[in-house]
Amino acid sequence: MNTPYQKLVERIRGEISDLEQVIDRALQGWLAIQTASTEQYAYLDSVALNLHSFYSGLERLFELIAGQVDGNLPGSETWHRDLLQQMAKDLPDTRPAVISQRNVAAIDEFRRFRHLVRNVYTINLIPEKMEGLVKTLPELWPNLQAELLAFADYLEALNKAIQED
Fold it and tell me: Is the distance from CB of 128 to CB of 79 less than 8 angstroms?
C-alpha cells in the first residue's frame, strides 16, 4: 500500500546519498587546488559546480516538502529565500521544522553562491568566498543530514499512523 509520504521519504534518503557525493567532490577538489601547481582554475570550477549542486539538491527537497507536506510553495520574487525560511518553521498541525534555525544562515550562503554561479562567468568567482563555503561543509553537513533523516523518520511515523487508521 502506498502511503502519502512514502515516495518523499525515499527521495529524501536518496538525495542524502547524492549530497554526500557532491560534498566529497567539493572537498576533494578544494584539496587538489591546494596542491596543484597548474590548472587550478579547473579545480575551482569543479568546486563551484559541486557547491552549486549541494544547494540545488537541498532546494529540490525543500520544494517537494513545501508542495507535498505544507501544501504551500512560496511564489514571490524572493521565493528561494522564503522557501529556506519556511523549512525552518514549525507548522503546527502540519509538520515540525525540517531544518533548525541555526543552519539557515549557513545554507543561505550556499543559496547566494548558487545564484552567483548562475549569473557570472566562472573567471569572476572569488576563491576566498568558496573557501569559506568548503570549510563550512564538514560541520554543517552532519547536522543537516541528521535533521533531514529525522524529518524522513517523522514522515514514516506519519505514514504508519495513516495505515493504522
Answer: no
What is the spatial distance between Cα 29 and Cα 14, in angstroms, rounded to a whole number?
23
For the chain, domains (ranges, CATH) are: 6-157 (1.20.120)
CA 98 remoteness from chain centre: 11
Distance CA 146, CA 84 (A): 17
Per-residue confidence in pLDDT tens, the chain, 165 aa: 467 899 999 999 999 999 999 999 999 999 998 887 777 878 899 999 999 999 999 999 999 999 999 999 999 999 999 999 999 999 998 999 999 999 999 999 999 999 888 888 777 888 888 999 999 999 999 999 999 999 999 999 998 888 886
Nearest-angstrom CA–CA distance, 136 and 155: 28
The pTM (predicted TM-score) of the whole model is 0.92
